[in-house]
Amino acid sequence: MDEKMKKLQTARENMYRFLSRLYMFEVDDVCFKNLEKAVFPQHCGNEDMAQGYKILSDFFQYHPISDALLDELAADYAGTFLAAGVAAGEAAFPYESVYLNSKHLVMQEAAAGADARYKADGLEIRRDMYHVPPDHVGLEMEYMAYLCANSKAAEEKQFFSQHLNNWVPFFSGEVIRLARSDFYKGLGWLTRGFMTLEQHYLNVI
C-alpha cells in the first residue's frame, strides 16, 4: 500500500472512531474539551459533511463548556437516541435491527449477523464497557475502524454494504430531524456526508 492510501485508510479509521465515540457515549467534560480544541475542515468535498463541520465549529465557538451545557447535551442524547422524555416515543434509535424489520424491534437478525462478523475476526464485545446490542451504530462503526486499521478491504466493503449502508443514511437524517442541539444536528450531517463518501469509495452505490 502506497503512502497516499495509508493516509486515506488512517483518515477513514479515525472518522469511524470519532463517530463511534459520539454515538456510543454521552459527551463528558474530557470529550468536550478535546472537541473544543479541534480544527474542523472548511472544505471536504461533500456538502453534507461541510454542513456538519460548520455547525460543530460554530457550536464550540459560541458554547463554552459548563455543567449546564453538558447536562443539556446529555438530555439531548437521551431524547434523540433513546426517546427519553419524549412523549410520542419518537427517536433516532441507533440499532440496525430497528430499521430492518416491520415491528421495529431490537436484537433481530441484523444484531446476530453483526455479532457473528465480530467473532469471525476474534473480537468480543466488552460487556463491562458496552451495554448495547451488537448492531448499535457505535459498535458497527468501531468494527469498520478495526477493518480500516487492518487493511481488510474486502471485509470493509462487505460489512459496509450489509450492515451500515442499508440504514445509517436514513438514521443520520433522523438525527438531524429530531436532535434539539446543534451539536447532535451537526453530528447527523457529518455522518450522512461520510456515508456518501464511503459509498463512492467502497463502490457500493
Essential attributes:
205 residues; mainly alpha; globular
What does this protein structure show overall?
The protein is mostly helical and 205 residues long. It is built from ten helices and no strands. The chain has helices at 3-24, 29-37, 47-62, 67-82, 96-100, 109-120, 137-149, 153-163, 168-178, 182-202. Helix 1 runs antiparallel to helix 7 and helix 7 (137-149) packs antiparallel against helix 8 (153-163). The longest helix is centred in the N-terminal third of the chain and has 22 residues, at 3-24.
Task: Annotate the secondary structure layout.
Blueprint: H1 3-24, H2 29-37, H3 47-62, H4 67-82, H5 96-100, H6 109-120, H7 137-149, H8 153-163, H9 168-178, H10 182-202
Helix pairs in contact: 1-7, 3-10, 7-8, 9-10
- Count of alpha/pi helices: 10
Helix-strand string: HHHHHHHHHH
**Average pLDDT figure:** 92
Biggest sheet, in brief?
none
User: Termini distance?
Assistant: 24 Å
Which stretches are poorly predicted, pLDDT < 50 over at least 5 residues? Answer: none
Overall number of strands: 0
Find the structural class using helix and strand composition: mainly alpha
**How would you name the oligomeric state of the polypeptide chains in this document?**
single chain
In short:
The protein has helices spanning 3-24, 29-37, 47-62, 67-82, 96-100, 109-120, 137-149, 153-163, 168-178, 182-202. The protein has 205 residues and is mainly α. The protein is built from ten helices and no strands.
